Amino acid sequence: xxxxxxxxxxxxxxxxxxxxxxxxxxxxxxxxxxxxxxxxxxxxxxxxxxxxxxxxxxxxxxxxxxxxxxxxxxxxxxxxxxxxxxxxxxxxxxxxxxxxxxxxxxxxxxxxxxxxxxxxxxxxxxxxxxxxxxxxxxxxxxxxxxxxxxxxxxxxxxxxxxxxxxxxxxxxxxxxxxxxxxxxxxxxxxxxxxxxxxxxxxxxxxxxxxxxxxxxxxxxxxxxxxxxxxxxxxxxxxxxxxxxxxxxxxxxxxxxxxxxxxxxxxxxxxxxxxxx
Length: 276
Ligand SMILES: [Zn+2]
Fold this sequence. Notes:
Elements: H1 2-16, E1 22-32, E2 36-45, E3 51-52, H2 56-89, H3 108-122, H4 124-130, E4 133-138, H5 144-155, E5 161-165, H6 166-174, H7 185-194, E6 197-203, H8 210-225, E7 230-234, H9 238-245, H10 247-256, E8 257-262, H11 267-275
Parallel strand pairs: 4-7, 4-8, 5-6, 6-7
Antiparallel strand pairs: 1-2, 2-3
Helix pairs in contact: 2-7, 3-5, 6-7, 7-8, 8-10, 9-10
The structure holds zinc ion (ZN).
């Protein structure tokens, strides 16, 4: 009888000075519809009903499913936050409307730069799969930003993209260091690494501190490892650019990025001369 078990067990509990105790009911073989036979262990806390353990394989499956659902929920939440960040800053307003059609190409060099840009945009699906990028090098006003913005806008219907300056990128990451920041540094780095096409303008405009360069390297390194295309815009020549981003990043970049020289005078300067 249950009653006599209880009485005996309580006596033992009293002797041990631990109050109510658990009573083991032994082991019996049970069958799970899915996993077949398993050993079930029974127990009962005094005064409650018997509890027999369920199928361990089912328990493991449920646990794994719960873990997966939680990971999926977190990934989904991060993706939503990333999409919100991107949609807020895909292309700066001043570059909207800069297209291939309204890029002025009159010299051979300009024709070449335009061709490379159009080809990159048209074959973006392929470039994207292989992580191929571009480096546009030239003085301010030579149309680097114009072509980079044109490429970005042409792929935004099917891909995600972001246009930023080196300093803007660094500030974006640094802003997460404030306690009130609603995003973590990892989230911002993940966003910068995961966006399909990242354009970084104004690289090497000013000498970067070590901390600034570290952030830039981190982003370039992640994109290199994930084979994501990046377009880098710089006013530096090859040597200055190598000095700025470091030899290691430079070597990796030359593996995957095509160097395009915008070696003509500024359009703005030219327009002023023409007007004079
Ligand atoms: Zn089972």
